[in-house]
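Thread: "does anyone have the structure for this chain?"

Original post by V.I.:
We have the sequence but no experimental structure in hand. Need at least a predicted one for the grant figures.
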Amino acid sequence: MPRYRVRLEDGALAVMSAADRERGLACVKTYVATDEGASFVVVLFEGSETKAVIEADRLGQLRTGAASAVAAKHLARPGARTLGVIGCGLQARSQVVCIREALPELEQVVAYCRSDERLAAFCRETGAEPAESHREPATADIVVTITNSRDPVLRGEWLRPGALVCAAGANRRHARELDNAVLERAAFVCCDSLADAKIESGDLIEPVEQGVLDWLEVHELQEVVAGELPGRQLDDDIVVFKSNGLAAWDLAVAARVVDLAG
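Reply from O.Q.:
Generated one for you, tokens below.
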């Protein structure tokens, strides 16, 4: 089920859920987010039993990074060697860790964020090279945007032929990380869930409303993973993966945590 938000005085309560019928598992992920931060919880059920209640901040970072890693594995151009990251928060760290795991042949990571102090800390922790502007990481083979910006941080004109863009930050209707030129240049656009994207993906909703994109041109990553669609067809194609985050991912990761704990 897509994420739904209940507005609070200084933030929002978000609720999302999923079921794995083959395994007999179900989960609810819920969190409150305000300007001061956020607190995440996943409740995992097996049949009628409450299997686990898991603090899910780190869990969410890992599953979001893992989704970008799956996209990179299936959609990056052959021989991709460079990763550019726009954003230096905790979510950005797991993006680097997970994409490196999926593509161990990566040779360079370049990162940028508006805070020099945070950028320096991020580069120390991840081994990334600091950039002086948004434009430098945008020229990598794989470009990740993982910010809380309401306005685009990535311009299509900056992208090199063959780039994969993983837009994983904005998940609100009126927030965007990509400008229209990114979508105009893209030969293939996919998301994690069309139903969810039509509710909260400003990066796709606004281009559709402006006639730059059509929902018929937006596919789901699962179709590529399952072999139903080719995804990238040419090495020089620009490909976009819009990631909002699914409760199905939370269920999968929570189940794995419980298995490891057992």
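V.I.: this helps a lot. Helices lie at 57-75, 90-102, 116-126, 180-185, 194-200, 202-209, 221-225, 247-261.
O.Q.: and The chain has a mean pLDDT of 95.
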